[in-house]
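Quick start: what a row looks like.
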Amino acid sequence: MKTNLDLQQFYEHTYSWLISYVPRFIIGMFILLGGLWLVRVLMNQLLLKMHAKEIDPTLKPFLMSMLGIALRISLIIGVMEIMGIQTTLFATLLGTFGVAVGLALSGTLQNFASGILILLLKPFAVDDQINTKGIEGTVTSIQIFYTILTTFDNLVVIVPNSQLSNQVITNMSRQLTRRLDISYQVPNNIDAGDLTRVISQTLEKCGQCLKSPAVRIGIGELLPEGYALSISVWTNAANFYENKLLIQGMLLQAIKDAGIKIPGM
Protein backbone atom coordinates (compact mmCIF):
# COMPACT_ATOMS: atom_id res chain seq x y z
CA MET A 1 0.00 0.00 0.00
CA LYS A 2 2.81 2.36 0.93
CA THR A 3 4.53 1.73 -2.40
CA ASN A 4 1.35 2.50 -4.31
CA LEU A 5 0.91 5.68 -2.26
CA ASP A 6 4.48 6.77 -2.99
CA LEU A 7 4.01 6.11 -6.70
CA GLN A 8 0.77 8.03 -6.66
CA GLN A 9 2.44 10.99 -4.93
CA PHE A 10 5.31 10.81 -7.43
CA TYR A 11 2.89 10.83 -10.35
CA GLU A 12 0.98 13.71 -8.82
CA HIS A 13 4.16 15.75 -8.27
CA THR A 14 5.36 14.94 -11.77
CA TYR A 15 2.01 15.85 -13.29
CA SER A 16 1.92 19.08 -11.28
CA TRP A 17 5.47 19.94 -12.39
CA LEU A 18 4.68 19.19 -16.01
CA ILE A 19 1.51 21.26 -15.89
CA SER A 20 3.41 24.12 -14.28
CA TYR A 21 6.69 24.18 -16.23
CA VAL A 22 6.13 22.54 -19.62
CA PRO A 23 3.85 25.35 -20.90
CA ARG A 24 6.41 27.89 -19.65
CA PHE A 25 9.18 25.97 -21.39
CA ILE A 26 7.24 25.79 -24.66
CA ILE A 27 6.31 29.47 -24.49
CA GLY A 28 9.91 30.36 -23.62
CA MET A 29 11.26 28.39 -26.59
CA PHE A 30 8.79 30.09 -28.94
CA ILE A 31 9.80 33.49 -27.55
CA LEU A 32 13.50 32.57 -27.84
CA LEU A 33 13.17 31.52 -31.48
CA GLY A 34 11.00 34.53 -32.32
CA GLY A 35 13.35 36.84 -30.44
CA LEU A 36 16.41 35.53 -32.26
CA TRP A 37 14.64 36.08 -35.57
CA LEU A 38 13.64 39.60 -34.52
CA VAL A 39 17.21 40.40 -33.40
CA ARG A 40 18.51 39.25 -36.79
CA VAL A 41 15.96 41.47 -38.59
CA LEU A 42 16.86 44.47 -36.41
CA MET A 43 20.58 43.91 -37.00
CA ASN A 44 20.05 43.79 -40.77
CA GLN A 45 18.01 47.00 -40.66
CA LEU A 46 20.67 48.69 -38.55
CA LEU A 47 23.38 47.58 -40.97
CA LEU A 48 21.45 49.10 -43.88
CA LYS A 49 21.08 52.39 -42.00
CA MET A 50 24.80 52.39 -41.22
CA HIS A 51 25.53 51.97 -44.93
CA ALA A 52 23.12 54.79 -45.77
CA LYS A 53 24.73 57.13 -43.23
CA GLU A 54 28.25 56.11 -44.34
CA ILE A 55 29.39 55.02 -40.89
CA ASP A 56 33.12 54.26 -40.86
CA PRO A 57 33.75 50.65 -42.03
CA THR A 58 36.09 50.07 -39.08
CA LEU A 59 33.31 50.87 -36.63
CA LYS A 60 30.48 48.82 -38.16
CA PRO A 61 31.60 45.30 -37.07
CA PHE A 62 32.22 46.42 -33.48
CA LEU A 63 28.88 48.20 -33.12
CA MET A 64 27.01 45.31 -34.71
CA SER A 65 28.80 42.76 -32.53
CA MET A 66 28.27 44.67 -29.29
CA LEU A 67 24.60 45.37 -30.01
CA GLY A 68 23.98 41.78 -31.10
CA ILE A 69 25.54 40.36 -27.92
CA ALA A 70 23.61 42.78 -25.69
CA LEU A 71 20.27 41.96 -27.37
CA ARG A 72 20.84 38.21 -27.24
CA ILE A 73 21.88 38.26 -23.56
CA SER A 74 18.80 40.32 -22.70
CA LEU A 75 16.62 37.89 -24.65
CA ILE A 76 18.08 34.83 -22.89
CA ILE A 77 17.63 36.38 -19.44
CA GLY A 78 14.02 37.24 -20.28
CA VAL A 79 13.32 33.70 -21.51
CA MET A 80 14.87 32.25 -18.36
CA GLU A 81 12.55 34.40 -16.27
CA ILE A 82 9.54 33.20 -18.27
CA MET A 83 10.62 29.57 -17.80
CA GLY A 84 10.86 30.11 -14.06
CA ILE A 85 14.64 29.73 -13.88
CA GLN A 86 16.18 31.89 -11.17
CA THR A 87 18.52 34.44 -12.77
CA THR A 88 19.68 36.21 -9.61
CA LEU A 89 22.89 34.22 -9.31
CA PHE A 90 23.50 34.44 -13.05
CA ALA A 91 23.06 38.21 -13.04
CA THR A 92 25.32 38.57 -9.98
CA LEU A 93 28.08 36.51 -11.59
CA LEU A 94 27.73 38.42 -14.85
CA GLY A 95 27.92 41.76 -13.03
CA THR A 96 30.94 40.69 -10.99
CA PHE A 97 32.69 39.44 -14.10
CA GLY A 98 31.92 42.69 -15.90
CA VAL A 99 33.33 44.80 -13.07
CA ALA A 100 36.50 42.68 -12.91
CA VAL A 101 37.05 42.91 -16.65
CA GLY A 102 36.34 46.65 -16.60
CA LEU A 103 38.95 47.25 -13.89
CA ALA A 104 41.52 45.06 -15.62
CA LEU A 105 41.00 46.70 -19.00
CA SER A 106 40.23 50.27 -17.92
CA GLY A 107 42.92 51.80 -20.15
CA THR A 108 41.98 49.59 -23.08
CA LEU A 109 38.29 50.39 -22.68
CA GLN A 110 39.10 54.08 -22.58
CA ASN A 111 40.98 53.74 -25.86
CA PHE A 112 38.06 51.74 -27.25
CA ALA A 113 35.50 54.40 -26.27
CA SER A 114 37.74 57.15 -27.65
CA GLY A 115 38.15 55.22 -30.90
CA ILE A 116 34.38 55.01 -31.32
CA LEU A 117 34.04 58.76 -30.68
CA ILE A 118 36.77 59.53 -33.23
CA LEU A 119 35.14 57.32 -35.86
CA LEU A 120 31.70 58.82 -35.18
CA LEU A 121 32.60 62.50 -34.78
CA LYS A 122 35.45 62.40 -37.34
CA PRO A 123 37.70 65.22 -36.10
CA PHE A 124 40.15 63.82 -38.66
CA ALA A 125 40.12 61.13 -41.33
CA VAL A 126 42.59 58.89 -43.11
CA ASP A 127 45.06 60.91 -45.25
CA ASP A 128 44.53 64.05 -43.14
CA GLN A 129 47.62 65.86 -41.88
CA ILE A 130 47.33 66.53 -38.16
CA ASN A 131 49.44 67.85 -35.33
CA THR A 132 48.97 66.61 -31.76
CA LYS A 133 51.32 67.05 -28.81
CA GLY A 134 54.11 68.14 -31.15
CA ILE A 135 53.69 65.08 -33.41
CA GLU A 136 52.93 66.07 -36.98
CA GLY A 137 52.13 63.60 -39.71
CA THR A 138 49.61 62.00 -42.04
CA VAL A 139 46.89 59.72 -40.67
CA THR A 140 47.34 56.33 -42.33
CA SER A 141 44.91 54.28 -40.25
CA ILE A 142 42.26 54.79 -37.57
CA GLN A 143 41.74 51.66 -35.48
CA ILE A 144 39.41 51.10 -32.56
CA PHE A 145 42.19 51.29 -29.97
CA TYR A 146 44.84 53.45 -31.65
CA THR A 147 45.58 55.71 -34.61
CA ILE A 148 48.63 55.35 -36.85
CA LEU A 149 50.46 58.42 -38.14
CA THR A 150 53.30 58.60 -40.64
CA THR A 151 55.51 61.62 -40.00
CA PHE A 152 57.04 63.66 -42.81
CA ASP A 153 60.41 61.96 -42.23
CA ASN A 154 58.66 58.57 -42.71
CA LEU A 155 58.43 57.47 -39.09
CA VAL A 156 55.41 55.45 -37.99
CA VAL A 157 53.83 56.77 -34.78
CA ILE A 158 51.11 54.77 -33.00
CA VAL A 159 49.00 57.02 -30.79
CA PRO A 160 46.42 55.63 -28.30
CA ASN A 161 42.98 56.99 -29.10
CA SER A 162 42.43 58.15 -25.51
CA GLN A 163 45.23 60.68 -25.97
CA LEU A 164 43.77 61.98 -29.21
CA SER A 165 40.31 62.42 -27.70
CA ASN A 166 41.69 64.42 -24.74
CA GLN A 167 44.23 66.59 -26.55
CA VAL A 168 44.12 69.60 -28.85
CA ILE A 169 44.39 68.40 -32.45
CA THR A 170 45.30 70.68 -35.34
CA ASN A 171 43.84 69.30 -38.56
CA MET A 172 45.83 70.84 -41.39
CA SER A 173 43.84 69.11 -44.13
CA ARG A 174 40.27 69.97 -43.14
CA GLN A 175 40.41 73.19 -45.18
CA LEU A 176 41.48 72.91 -48.80
CA THR A 177 43.74 75.96 -48.66
CA ARG A 178 46.38 77.27 -46.26
CA ARG A 179 48.11 80.58 -45.86
CA LEU A 180 51.88 80.72 -46.12
CA ASP A 181 53.44 83.56 -44.12
CA ILE A 182 56.96 84.74 -44.97
CA SER A 183 58.85 87.57 -43.28
CA TYR A 184 62.10 89.25 -44.30
CA GLN A 185 64.11 91.56 -42.05
CA VAL A 186 65.23 94.34 -44.38
CA PRO A 187 67.67 97.23 -43.64
CA ASN A 188 66.61 100.83 -44.14
CA ASN A 189 68.82 101.32 -47.22
CA ILE A 190 66.59 98.99 -49.27
CA ASP A 191 63.49 100.64 -50.69
CA ALA A 192 60.33 98.83 -49.55
CA GLY A 193 58.52 99.72 -52.80
CA ASP A 194 61.17 98.14 -55.02
CA LEU A 195 61.30 94.98 -52.92
CA THR A 196 57.49 94.73 -52.81
CA ARG A 197 57.30 95.11 -56.60
CA VAL A 198 59.80 92.30 -57.22
CA ILE A 199 58.02 89.97 -54.80
CA SER A 200 54.56 90.81 -56.20
CA GLN A 201 55.63 90.17 -59.82
CA THR A 202 57.22 86.87 -58.82
CA LEU A 203 54.15 85.64 -56.97
CA GLU A 204 51.90 86.58 -59.91
CA LYS A 205 53.84 84.13 -62.08
CA CYS A 206 53.92 81.43 -59.36
CA GLY A 207 51.84 78.38 -60.27
CA GLN A 208 51.66 77.24 -56.65
CA CYS A 209 50.07 80.51 -55.47
CA LEU A 210 46.30 80.89 -55.48
CA LYS A 211 44.75 84.01 -56.98
CA SER A 212 42.11 84.15 -54.26
CA PRO A 213 42.47 85.15 -51.48
CA ALA A 214 44.79 87.82 -52.79
CA VAL A 215 48.44 88.08 -51.87
CA ARG A 216 49.19 90.55 -49.07
CA ILE A 217 52.57 92.27 -48.86
CA GLY A 218 53.39 95.04 -46.38
CA ILE A 219 55.59 96.24 -43.55
CA GLY A 220 54.71 94.08 -40.59
CA GLU A 221 57.06 95.63 -38.05
CA LEU A 222 59.41 98.59 -37.71
CA LEU A 223 62.84 97.64 -36.40
CA PRO A 224 65.68 99.83 -35.03
CA GLU A 225 67.76 99.34 -38.18
CA GLY A 226 65.11 98.57 -40.73
CA TYR A 227 61.76 96.88 -41.08
CA ALA A 228 60.16 93.47 -41.41
CA LEU A 229 58.45 92.87 -44.74
CA SER A 230 55.52 90.45 -44.27
CA ILE A 231 54.17 88.33 -47.13
CA SER A 232 50.97 86.26 -46.97
CA VAL A 233 50.16 83.98 -49.88
CA TRP A 234 47.58 81.19 -50.15
CA THR A 235 48.29 77.73 -51.54
CA ASN A 236 46.74 74.25 -51.63
CA ALA A 237 46.78 72.53 -48.24
CA ALA A 238 47.52 69.10 -49.72
CA ASN A 239 50.96 70.19 -50.98
CA PHE A 240 51.64 72.93 -48.48
CA TYR A 241 55.19 72.00 -47.51
CA GLU A 242 56.31 71.30 -51.08
CA ASN A 243 54.78 74.59 -52.21
CA LYS A 244 56.42 76.44 -49.33
CA LEU A 245 59.87 75.30 -50.44
CA LEU A 246 59.19 76.20 -54.09
CA ILE A 247 57.74 79.64 -53.32
CA GLN A 248 60.56 80.60 -50.96
CA GLY A 249 63.12 79.44 -53.51
CA MET A 250 61.47 81.50 -56.27
CA LEU A 251 61.40 84.61 -54.08
CA LEU A 252 65.03 84.23 -53.07
CA GLN A 253 66.14 83.88 -56.70
CA ALA A 254 63.98 86.80 -57.85
CA ILE A 255 65.39 89.10 -55.14
CA LYS A 256 68.97 88.16 -56.09
CA ASP A 257 68.27 88.63 -59.83
CA ALA A 258 66.91 92.11 -59.06
CA GLY A 259 70.22 93.02 -57.43
CA ILE A 260 68.66 93.54 -54.02
CA LYS A 261 71.01 92.41 -51.29
CA ILE A 262 69.32 91.56 -48.00
CA PRO A 263 71.72 90.59 -45.19
CA GLY A 264 71.57 86.88 -44.50
CA MET A 265 70.22 86.04 -47.98
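That is the whole record. The CA atoms of residues 130 and 171 lie 4 Å apart. The first strand starts at residue 129 and ends at 132.
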